[in-house]
Amino acid sequence: MNLVGLDYVNEKDKELTKLFIESKSIKKYILGINKLGKSVLKHLEVDGIIDDFTRVQKSRKKTVLQIEEVPKDSIILTVATGSPLEVNIKLDELGYTHFNYLAFIKYSKLDLVHPPFIMDFKDDFLQNESNYQKTYNLLADKKSKEVFKKVLNFKMTFDLEFMKGFTNNFDEQYFDKDLIPEIKDISFLDGGAYVGDTLPNIIKNFPDYKKIYCIEPNNLHLKIAKRDFSTQRDIEFINCGLGNKKQETSKTQELQDNCAHDYQAENIDTIDNLIKEKVDFIKLDIEGAEQDTIIGSKQTILNHHPILAICIYHKAQDWYKVPELVLGIRNDYKVYIRHYMEGIYETVMYFIPKVDY
Questions:
Q1: N or C: which end of the chain has fewer CB within 10 A?
Q2: Alpha-carbon distance 220 to 317, whole Å?
Q3: The whole model's pTM is what?
Q4: Digits of tens for pLDDT over the chain (357 positions)?
């Protein structure tokens, strides 16, 4: 695989971390308002908080500044998670010295809030390097192997340099033109439908679709999807979580405490139980329940050989457990990986049937 290794050090980021903690003469600012920045403030005093270039507001103790108000000889710690490369480019253009929260958590050794979906990687890789290699060997094209190495190098190093080239590309997520064949009268299962944010692209890419199953455990989110797509034909909205068996919980079960989509389920069932008709395409973005859901989709995968687009960024072990589970059911799939965001989110593993459409 030729990865950079867990002992990699970015000397510039390491030095900026030291200055940010120890310097009494350099002005220091945090760019972004979230729980990551708040955790830094529990340990250090800073000279101000910068907004995301668009808002001006007040916090309880600090004035929230516009970037133009910040001296050019300052150090800026950015806590953006959604578009960190875009933020870096903007700060470079403006001539600021800056570094990212991921570098700060790596080199500061302070007890900080963990960024999502990355802190479990190191221990897992040390114990399962051969399994990561197996996944790498499975990948069906050069681009998949490049994506694999870039994202794993990032997870090893916390260094955004390895993410350069990725963009926030939500239109192609799950619908990559290089991978997805044309299918007429498709039946699409949207697992983790949230508020229906994938539905427009399903409809755009498959305008003659036969049926869309929109499955979402959070009833409030599903109500929004129903409202927004109330006039759209042949969508079945199912208020349920997905897993490996049918179960009801006595209270709301939160599957991932740092997920953006608040994937909670009071009722959980399997795809095999919920859908008895033919399914051509299954998309899963269900905040850590992907492995269980594959187990609960065994008959559907065996009987219908659907395309699978499965998010693998929630858990480190998803990178090898997901292909192991799917190919353990059917081994006649080609396996690909694509990544659709500047940060750690939105890595998708595709399983494309080895058949002609």
A1: C
A2: 30
A3: 0.91
A4: 889 999 999 999 999 999 999 999 999 999 998 999 999 999 999 999 998 654 445 444 557 888 989 999 999 999 988 889 999 999 999 999 999 999 999 999 899 999 999 999 999 999 999 999 999 999 999 999 999 999 999 999 999 999 999 999 999 999 999 999 989 999 999 999 999 999 999 999 999 999 999 999 999 999 999 999 999 999 999 999 999 999 876 544 444 433 444 445 679 999 999 999 999 999 999 989 999 999 999 999 999 999 999 999 999 999 999 999 999 999 999 999 999 999 999 999 999 999 754
Per-residue tokens: 240? 């349920």
